[in-house]
Design goal:
- The protein is an alpha/beta fold.
- Helices cover 30% and strands 20% of the residues.
- A 6-stranded mixed β-sheet has the order 10-9-8-11-13-12, with helices on both faces.
- Strand 1 and strand 2 form a beta hairpin.
Length: 372
Amino acid sequence: MELQQFGWHEHFDQPFRQYQERGWQAGRVSIQHRDLYHLMTADGEVEGVVTGRFRHNAGSPADFPAVGDWVVFGPSEMEGPVAVQAVLPRRGTFSRRAAGTVPYEQVIAANVDTVFIVSGLDGNHNLRRVERYATQGWNSGVQPVALLNKVDLCADPEAVLAEAHASLPGVDVHAVSGERGDGIDALKPYLGAGRTVVFVGSSGVGKSTISNRILGREQMSTHEVRAGDSRGRHTTTHRELLVVPSGALLIDTPGMREFALWAGGDDEDGEHPGEAAPDSFEDIAELARGCRYPNCRHMSDAGCRIQEALSLGDLDPSRVRSYRALAREISIAAQRERKRGRMTPDADAKRRSKRSNRREGKRRLREEADES
């Protein structure tokens, strides 16, 4: 088998050469189970674990292999998994900021060309949520594509589609039905041989159903959503990379309850929030660049082009509110990242443990007071 069928790109040729000279091989991570990785290789699928040296040198969780990564491995000293020595430089990484008090990057999928942002039209549709995913896609160098799923359950799909096009300039928007197959053929341009797509969205929006349509088989388990709020359970419990009949590669992911933006170095000085999310809100960002003052907050500042457009009715106020919120979130995340540096979650775990110990101590004191 050739590595190209798993998405190998000339981008990896140069960094891999030094390892190839040592007789090491390359493989792509298809599944991660805690510390064990499933790798697609030229010789078939193998299991791997990172070496102790790799673990020691890793500066953060984002340095460890993620689904979609190309890793370098050599034979293990014992029978069993191969020894993963390094992760090759990534191209197109879709990440989010992990939950917790210490900000660090959580890689959702690596070496991705397109992110399919799935939203359900059965009551779980939220354009602001789609904008958030699209913003992270643009900032990560990944093409965002919005899939409005369950179009067969929508009373007025044309109106919803028009609203999405207006709110997501620069983002391709498709109305599809994973259940019936409507609109799936329109996704073929994104599924060329060697290209990688990742599905993201909340639970119950139909990511796995669309994935099964594209794969041509029932690969992913699916469940019905709750009738009250159209939300579903976490049917997909892990991320997995699969080969599509067209030669593309597909990564399905579990539903996300929350999605905090990862700054990734954007807006370094934090002084011009109008530049924080330029691609998702290009029309608003263009106006922001024309404001009288470079640090305009776009509220009541003199010479604010955004406020002028709002007063003329040329901008949707809800989009401007979303733009401000996302720009501020990115700016704050970047400032926290610079302040704390690249910290591992160990510090976060210690803080949580201290808080837990304090709570436990207070609980015991209350119990002792009650007993006395």
